[in-house]
């Protein structure tokens, strides 16, 4: 199989399919799925991120495509807020249209398709992705809550800013950005990870991709699309196709090209991240629509991401 798109995407989708079958068959219970999810994000993810970034020097990083990505996300997020309204529901829907699954699907896909060079660009984005996007969404959501007056305790400015500051803190002290920052700091020291420690980190990092993708399938097995199929399809087209088109168009307009831009465009085409569901739960809005959108956007990713990756080769 020589086609880079198929050779990178088919293993990803097969692993997700294995998880889907295991979920439907009841091989992995909901309780066990939560424990495995904690293992992936609290143990395997930090090991992979720290080890990869521990040999990267800051001067090697290119922040221009990352800035372009966040600019594109900001534009689309604002447009969707204008479309849906700056309410709790509108904000969660806008988040679903702009927040990519950069870790569970993005890391193994970019690793297979573009190697370590692509991962460095992706990790640069991931180190700020949740912090910037989720913190911005939190501010808009809390402002919406204050306007709606749904909860007296949340309607004060002090409560809102306490929530925003907590979101900023949680965005930094987190198993994704923190090991990236620590790995970069370690790299700048000039030290090298001792072999006796590097080998376990390598093994843990290698286990991340397969287990994370199987868990995506298990999660999909419990998702219900139902009456929200139409809305889920609309959001999927926005997230999987409109956002990467916007990133590619702005990149072209600003004269960018090469692997960093390609990685950003492919990242923009990834399905909706599960953090969006957590926000819908917390603010008790659009929960069924978000769940359906995560399922549909992930299921259609084989087609949409394949299309984007094929076109991204011309960037």
Number of domains: 1
**Unreliable runs, pLDDT <50, ≥5 residues?**
150-155
Oligomer: single chain
| Series of secondary-structure elements, N-terminal to C-terminal | HHHHHHHHHHHHH
CATH class descriptor name: Mainly Alpha
CATH fold descriptor? Na+/H+ antiporter like fold
Radius of gyration: 19 Å
Structural class computed from helices and strand pairing: mainly alpha
Overall mean confidence score, pLDDT = 84
Helix content: over 70%
Textual characterization of the structure:
There is one protein chain. By secondary structure, this protein is mainly alpha-helical. It has one domain: Up-down Bundle (Na+/H+ antiporter like fold). It has 13 helices and no strands. Helix 9 packs parallel to helix 13 (301-312). The radius of gyration is 19 Å and the shape is globular. The chain starts with a helix and ends with a helix. Mean pLDDT is 84; it is low at 150-155.
Q: Which labels suit this protein?
A:
globular; 315 residues; mainly alpha; 77% helix; Na+/H+ antiporter like fold
Overview in brief:
The chain is an all-alpha fold and 315 residues long. Helices cover 77% and strands 0% of the residues.
Topology readout:
Blueprint: H1 4-25, H2 30-53, H3 64-84, H4 88-96, H5 106-148, H6 157-172, H7 177-188, H8 195-221, H9 229-253, H10 259-268, H11 275-282, H12 287-299, H13 301-312
Helix pairs in contact: 1-5, 1-8, 1-13, 2-7, 2-8, 3-4, 3-5, 3-9, 4-5, 4-11, 5-6, 5-7, 5-10, 9-10, 9-12, 9-13, 11-12
């Amino acid at each position: 199989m020589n086609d880079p798109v198929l050779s990178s995407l088919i293993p990803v989708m097969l692993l997700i399919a294995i998880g889907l079958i295991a979920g439907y068959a009841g091989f992995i219970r909901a309780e066990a799925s939560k424990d495995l999810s904690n293992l992936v994000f609290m143990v395997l993810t930090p090991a992979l991120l720290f080890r990869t970034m521990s040999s990267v020097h800051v001067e090697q990083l290119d922040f221009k495509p990352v800035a372009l990505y966040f600019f594109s996300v900001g534009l689309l997020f604002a447009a969707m807020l204008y479309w849906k309204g700056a309410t709790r529901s509108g904000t969660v829907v806008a988040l679903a249209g702009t927040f990519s699954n950069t870790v569970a699907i993005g890391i193994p896909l970019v690793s297979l398709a573009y190697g370590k060079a692509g991962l460095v660009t992706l990790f640069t984005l991931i180190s700020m992705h949740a912090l910037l996007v989720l913190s911005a969404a939190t501010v808009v959501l809390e402002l919406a809550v204050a306007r709606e007056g749904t909860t007296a305790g949340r309607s004060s400015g002090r409560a809102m800013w306490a929530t925003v500051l907590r979101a900023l803190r949680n965005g930094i002290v987190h198993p994704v950005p923190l090991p990236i920052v620590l790995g970069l700091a370690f790299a700048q020291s000039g030290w090298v990870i001792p072999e006796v420690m590097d080998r376990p980190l390598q093994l843990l990092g290698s286990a991340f991709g397969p287990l994370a993708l199987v868990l995506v399938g298990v999660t999909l097995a419990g998702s219900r699309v139902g009456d929200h199929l139409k809305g889920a399809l609309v959001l999927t087209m926005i997230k999987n196709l409109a956002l990467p088109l916007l990133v590619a168009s702005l990149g072209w307009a600003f004269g960018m090209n090469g692997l960093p831009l390609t990685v950003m465009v492919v990242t923009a085409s990834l399905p909706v991240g599960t953090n969006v569901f957590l926000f819908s739960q917390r603010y008790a809005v659009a929960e069924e629509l978000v769940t359906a959108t995560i399922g549909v956007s992930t299921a259609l990713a084989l087609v949409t991401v394949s299309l984007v990756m094929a076109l991204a080769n011309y960037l």
